[in-house]
Amino acid sequence: MFLALKNNTPLRSIYVTLGIIIITTVSIIMSIDSTYIYLDKKNKIIEDMKQSSKKTIVSLQKNITDLIESYAINEYDKLIFNEMEHQGSSAIIVEDYNMGKILGEKSFLSGKIRDADGKIVDYDPKNSKQSKQLSTCYYSNKQEITTASGGKLGNITVYFSNSSMNKELKKIIVGSVMNLILISLLLTLFLFIIIRFFILKPLSDIITIIKNSDNDGIPIELIPTQGYQEVALLSDTMNNMIISIQNSRVALKKQKNALRHQANHDALTGLANRILFNDRLEQSIVRAKRKGNKIALFFIDLDHFKGINDSLGHGVGDEVLKAITQRLLKTIRKEDSLARLGGDEFTVIVEYLTNIQDASPLAQKIIKVLEEPIVVEDYLLYVSSSIGISTYPNDGESAQDLLKYADAAMYRAKEKGRNNFQYYSADMTELALERVVMEASLRESLKNEDFVVYYQPQVNGKNDELMGMEALVRWNHPTMGLVSPAKFIPLAEVTGLIIELDQWVMKTAMTQVAKWYAAGLNPGVLALNLAMKQLQKKDFIRMVKKMLKETKCEAQWIELEVTESQIMSNPEESIKTLNQISDMGIELAVDDFGTAYSSLSYLKRLPLDKLKIDQSFVRNIPEDEEDAAIAKAVIALAKSLNLRVIAEGVETVEQRDFLVKNGCTNIQGYFYAKPMSAFDMEAVLST
Amino acid sequence: MFNKKININYMQFSIMTIMLLLMFASCSDEKSMNNTDVSGKDSSSSKPKVQTKKKLAYIVTDSRIPFWAIMGRGVKNRADFLGYDLEIYSAQNSAKHELELTVKAIKNRVSGIIISPSTSSACVTVLKLAKSSNIPVVISDVGADSGEYVSYISSNNREGAYKIGKVLAKKMLELGFENGRVGIIAIPQKRLNGKARTAGFMQAMDESGIKGADIRQLVTWSEEETYGFTKEMINTYPDLRAIWLQTSNGYNGALRAIADMGKKGKILLIAFDAEPEFLNLIPKGVLAGSAMQQPYLMGQKALNAMDRYLRGKNVKKNIQLPILSVSTENIQMQLSTIKRDVLGIEK
């Protein structure tokens, strides 16, 4: 009946309140009704009494007149008896003057009266009880009895007691009380059921849904708007409230995010501010530590910016900063992080570097990009930059140190004449410079086709027959002469030039092989190194097909080599692309097998034809037992996966024999031949 | 002081009581000299105390009617014999007078009332009045519709009427009048005795297979009335062969009417009760017979009942006396009874 809430305030059930209201209301209504009926009935009874008494008197008067005149007292007593039997009077008394004269009294009283049991008995004037009964009668009607000529014969009085009236009225009261109880019960029951079904159940359903709320107490589901109008309206209103709260929460979240964003971002440029930058740098350091990568931190300071601000105003200065921001965002990689520390100072966190020098091209790029003039309003403005670079872990292992050193490097860049970049360590700077130069040369050489393809034979170690060859690029620098691939290939990869280079090598080699086949020579399968960047290009397959067509090279004449580490950098994508290549009829080989962390499950899924044992495992066999065991394991794995196996870097007969003995008959290395020019290779093929 | 007052009052009361007793004693002495007991002997010598004669009243509806006059004589005879002071009040057939006489008797502080009421209904009022004054009542003839009384002396009207009906039927058969009708001149039928008489007679007629003609109720009880009724019935019913007069009073009217209508000897007349002339008329066959109540005896019985009551003895509530069925054939046998108990001839 009572539910206590958390604060222990007892709450009354709606049933109790409803019951009280209903019973009170019904009681009041029934009481009013009963009172009305009671009074109405009472008035009716009284009226009936009066009418009855009138009728009685009228009925009796004439006969009694005659009987009084004839002194037939018993006869009029009998008449009175008969009359009383048919109506409910309490007594009918005759005052007989005639008889009274005989008795020497004023009148003689005779008649009939009802006793306590309602029985009609003779009236005895000497009976005090009867006299009292008459005196206490509720109503009486006296009528004079006269002769035809008007002489008084006496009176006839009809008496009515209220006993029958009281009985009737009591019945009414009892009936009313019974009705009241019955109606109250029925009405209460009926209304309880109705309320339960039409109000409380829907409310209960609503409560159930509301109870199913999230951690903030907001209902998870919306309340169904069904049922009756009022309940549906309540549901709808609550839903609006819920939605409003949810929206507010979203808005609040947005606001919080915005505030958080504001707290962590630069308002002008939207870039990470110093706080966020510090956090990001620390996270980068953690990642680099875990993965063994290097990080380069660029501290970029705009040259001559102060002058712009002072001369043209902060409004223009802000626009310049925004423009600079956009240029920097377009220049840096996706994985790099740009921040504005304040004023005209920006930082870039360059992650996932294997080689610190790989950051240099980016730095150079930034220098170049920022050299371009900026148009703000009608002004053509020139803003250059001075970039200081610190590296992790070389220069420091904490964010604080890296920033400090990058800042110091930036100042050196300023000292060196601005519009340049400086590593914190001088060596790095030199190397960086070298790199920049080399990159430029690389671009130039690609334009000029200063590269040449060399071919290293792949020989059957058993019978020394030529199986195929690997195409290897050589850079014939106009001034530096032949540059080792170890020097320019990484640079090409970092700068993205590797794609162009790769494609050139492919085209050149495929053209050559096609020519050899056309000339009737048997060069075997041409192995081409495939850079990952190529593999990731969306149009790679189309490009290969086009190249095969253009070079007239058959798919089965070529084999593409991808390194194990390249495959494992994005195995799912690799599988997809390599399958497409395999479907073209081109064989696939894994280069440098054993040097990365291959998942054998992925290995099974790759459409490979050949495993190439990395030269690092060949160099010390058969003496190095570990390398020998690895080599054997790789050979066994290849066999178990039904793959061919080739070993590269074979330089001695012992190495060759060991490999052949253990099942690896495909041999590549200086033992048989160094990479040679096409001219020299043709000569070999011709023999 | 209060106790003194009580003592004085007590003394006064005692003195008064003694005085009253002395007065009563003297009165009793005087009366005892005149008392005679039932046997006629002077009881004063046999009774140690002087007895006062008790007053009784006999209220009769109409002492002019021989029947009740005879009854009165019977009451008187017995009252005298038993030493009661009887006063006879005749109501002259008036209900009012009957009541007046009742009140008078009550006021006279009678010890008892014997009544031959005008109607059984009127008797109820008399009984009420008497009861209110604690005066016992004995009813003789007619009866009462209700009320308290000591005893009711009546005739067996039904049986009497039946018997006389049988006498008539026998006579009619003898005369070959069995196909004729019988008319009745009746006393008021609202009276119980009237109803009883008619019922008994009709039973006899039914049993005998004799048809009834008509019934006329007496109002004035006069001879002329009887004459008129008789003539009417003779005119109306040509096959009228007998008339039964439910009373004796007015018989002559009937006889005259029969004679005047030329039906003498062709229409039998029987009556109820008796006139002294019947002693002559019945043997002669002028009247075929009469059912004779014994009013004198009834009066005696009524007084006897009152006497027994006043003496604290048990009294029968209802004493029904036979009605003599007198015909030409048996009148001689019943002559002495008729003379004494019917006609009240005391000598």
Give the strand content of chain B: 15-25%
Helix content of chain B: 40-55%
Shape summary of chain B: elongated
Major sheet characteristics of chain A: 8 strands, mixed, barrel
* Overall pLDDT confidence of chain A: 87
Helix segment count of chain A? Answer: 23
The structural class of chain B is alpha/beta
Largest interface: A-B, 16 and 15 residues
CATH topology of the domain at 157-292 and 325-342 in chain B: Rossmann fold
| Share of β-strand residues of chain A | 15-25%
What is the overall shape of chain A? rod-shaped
Structure class of chain A: alpha/beta
Strand order of the largest sheet of chain A: 15-16-18-19-20-21-22-23
What are the low-pLDDT stretches of chain A, counting only 5+ consecutive residues below 50? none
Tell me which CATH architecture of the domain at 157-292 and 325-342 in chain B applies here: 3-Layer(aba) Sandwich
CATH secondary-structure class of the domain at 157-292 and 325-342 in chain B = Alpha Beta
Physical arrangement of strands within the biggest beta sheet of chain B: 2-1-3-4-5-11
Q: How confident is the prediction overall: mean pLDDT of chain B? A: 85
Number of strand elements of chain B = 12
Note poorly predicted spans of chain B: 1-8, 24-50
Specify the biggest β-sheet of chain B. 6 strands, parallel
Task: Report on this structure.
The complex is a heterodimer of chains A (687) and B (347). With 687 residues, chain A is α/β, with parallel strands linked by helices. Chain A contains 23 helices and 23 strands. Chain A has an eight-stranded mixed barrel, surrounded by five helices. In chain A, strands 5-4-3-7-6 form a five-stranded antiparallel sheet. In chain A, helix 1 packs antiparallel against helix 2 and helix 9 packs antiparallel against helix 10. Chain A is rod-shaped. Chain B has eleven helices and twelve strands. Helix content of chain B is 48%, strand content 18%. Chain B has a six-stranded parallel sheet with strand order 2-1-3-4-5-11, sandwiched between helices. A six-stranded mixed sheet of chain B has the order 7-6-8-9-10-12, sandwiched between helices. In chain B, helix 5 runs parallel beside helix 6. At the A-B interface, helix 2 and helix 3 of A face helix 3 and helix 4 of B.
